[in-house]
Amino acid sequence: MQTTEGRAGRVRVEQGTKRVRAYLGGEVVADTIRPRLVWEVPHYPAYYFPVEDVRTELLVPTATVTHSPSRGDARHFTVKAGDHRAEDAALRYVDSPIAELRGLVRLDWDAMDGWFEEDEEVYTHPRDPYTRVDILATSRRVRVEVEGVVLAESANARALFETGLPPRWYLPKTDVRMDRWCRPARPPTAPTRARPSTGRSGWATAWSRTWPGPIAPPCPRARRSPGWSPSTTRRSTCSSTTASRSGR
């Protein structure tokens, strides 16, 4: 996170974890899984996109330059997509005193036709991660593996976003290889982090990080490694990838 003070107030920049897309004229203008949340005003953030995740061929430079006491001079671009034209709707702070902003593009929220966080449309302004918990439908492909064995894979997951925590992914039971999990003979004394939760809701939970330490053994028919023993230290991973820039 980078913070700077200026006459316009305090500017804070943080790394986001949601997939964010902006549309104009029926086309995707920007699509990223690494957005930046920039608090230009104290009440809610604005989304900035890495320039690599913006369709720069849709941006036409203009003569407009605006100045911010804290962010520096912004060069503006007109966005032309489909049969729509949004004048001066994109800007870049190429020489900003805030280093994190220099490689980013900001799109005017109201000038775009639609904004999506994961697969759900968002209105008015980005959601502030410090005032809410979001559970969003996502088409990002999520895969859970243990030592190369796929335990679950889905493009219909739900993503849980909580402040200060990595995203957690909830997969439909139909996308989980339940035959590769064994229920314990008795309730475990501590939660087994690699075993999916299978409550009445029909969803299984997958963490988005690598958990160290031993996990419960898989069912015998799922064993893949010769010489396996219960004392073997294993790791589980959960990975997600985004769909193509076309939007799905």
Description:
With 248 residues, this protein is mainly β. The chain has two domains: 2-131, Beta Complex (Metal Binding Protein, Guanine Nucleotide Exchange Factor, Chain A), CATH 2.170.150.40; 135-241, Metal Binding Protein, Guanine Nucleotide Exchange Factor, Chain A (Beta Complex), CATH 2.170.150. The chain is built from no helices and 19 strands. It has strands spanning 2-6, 9-15, 20-24, 27-32, 36-39, 46-50, 59-68, 72-81, 84-92, 104-107, 114-117, 120-122, 134-138, 141-146, 149-154, 157-161, 168-172, 203-207, 236-241. An eight-stranded antiparallel sheet has the order 1-2-5-6-10-9-8-7, with no helix packed on it. A four-stranded antiparallel sheet has the order 4-3-11-12, with no helix packed on it. A hairpin with a 2-residue loop joins strand 3 (20-24) and strand 4.
| Quaternary organisation | single chain
Q: State the share of residues found in helices, binned by percent.
A: under 10%
Low-confidence stretches: 1-8, 207-239, 241-248
- Number of beta-strand segments: 19
Supply the helix-strand structural class.
mainly beta
Mean pLDDT: 77
Shape, per Cα inertia axes: elongated
How are the strands of the largest sheet arranged? 1-2-5-6-10-9-8-7
Domain count: the total is 2
Q: What is the terminal-to-terminal distance? A: 30 Å
Following the backbone from N to C, one meets helices and strands in this order, namely: EEEEEEEEEEEEEEEEEEE
